[in-house]
Automatic annotation (TrEMBL):
One of its GO terms (cellular component) is plasma membrane. The chain crosses the membrane at residues 228-251. Residues 1-21 form the signal peptide. Residues 120-221 form the Interferon/interleukin receptor domain. GO terms for molecular function: cytokine receptor activity. It comes from Eleginops maclovinus. The keyword Membrane applies. Keywords: Membrane, Signal, Transmembrane, Transmembrane helix. This is Interleukin-10 receptor subunit beta-like. InterPro entries: FN3_dom, FN3_sf, Ig-like_fold, Interferon/interleukin_rcp_dom, Type-II_Cytokine-TF_Rcpt. Residues 6-108 form the Fibronectin type-III domain.
Amino acid sequence: MSAAVCVLILSALWGHTVVSGDLSRPTKVRLTSHDMNLVLSWDLPAEPAGLLYTTEYRSSVINYRAGCVNISTLECDFTRHSIPQTIYQFGKYTARVRAHSGTETSAWVESNNVAMDKETNISSPIISLLSNGAAIEVIIQDPVFRISSLRQVYSSATYNITYWQDSQKQKTRSISNIQQSRVVLSDLEPWTKYCVKVQISTGRISNNLSQPSADVCESTTIDKEVPWVAAVVTFITMAIAVALVVVAVVYRKRISHLLCPKDSLPQHFKEDLMVRPNSSMYIAMCNSHPSEEIFHQVSIIPDSSIIEAERPLEAEPPHTTQT
Ligand SMILES: *[C@@H]1O[C@H](CO)[C@@H](O)[C@H](O)[C@H]1NC(C)=O
Ligand SMILES: *[C@@H]1O[C@H](CO)[C@@H](O)[C@H](O)[C@H]1NC(C)=O
Ligand SMILES: *[C@@H]1O[C@H](CO)[C@@H](O)[C@H](O)[C@H]1NC(C)=O
Ligand SMILES: *[C@@H]1O[C@H](CO)[C@@H](O)[C@H](O)[C@H]1NC(C)=O
């Protein structure tokens, strides 16, 4: 009786360590689950380092089974170390850990419960974008689960796709309840950069959203019809270019003669022609209109007396001269 009281008093004085065993126990023991793994982790006990740890787990229907044995790390992933088939996606699990060093062991420390499908934290989907004219195709990859797969656990999981113009982050649009993993966004402006974010909704009552994906951005180009028009325009341009080349080859002599005549003016001539005289006379000539020339009509009538006078004297006729 007195011994029991003594143990109780010691226990009250020294905390758990005395009653639990020779070694101090691991602290902050927690069981977590991300993407359907099951990981027990803990903090170092107060005692010095060099300890080993052993873990076990149980479900609501089976008793404790061995997990990691004699490990020196501070966590144990039961979905990696134990027999894989013994953890089920719809199971509810508890785990425990104890420290040991040589022959000394600590007491077990039990963790919280985790109901795998209800509580696992789902990481973000991975998205990639394919620009196709003025539309963008969103391709969604589910996070990889350690056991089972997203669709097997959450058969009614849906995607919530949020998208916005890169320049207008506050004006987002969303489409939700999407079940297919490839979705075409077609109500987009051409030549515009859009960003997309996707979040998975499990359709469950609690812990029902995945982490949102990273924002992924892609630019639209131009309407789908236009590549066809562009092809025609390209074809016509090519045809004209080919025709021009053919003409140039056929008439190359004439063209070269026309563009580069063989005879050219001597250099000093060219320079003289290029120089614009700046004498006042030249400028006056340029600015003045050609003056009207005034003239009178003049008729020349031959004078017979002069003609007579110019005749040789010796042949003078007898008639009188007129003036
Ligand atoms: C899920 O994540 C939250 C926040 O990080 C954490 O508090 C919670 O323990 C996690 N649940 C499980 C089961 O790991
Ligand atoms: C774990 O270590 C203890 C001693 O600390 C030893 O007795 C036991 O055999 C070891 N178990 C395994 C599986 O190595
Ligand atoms: C989808 O995600 C957006 C952005 O996170 C949010 O505003 C919107 O309410 C969500 N829609 C649904 C139906 O959950
Ligand atoms: C998602 O979970 C929250 C609580 O975490 C809950 O209030 C909400 O109703 C759930 N949504 C659905 C669709 O179940």
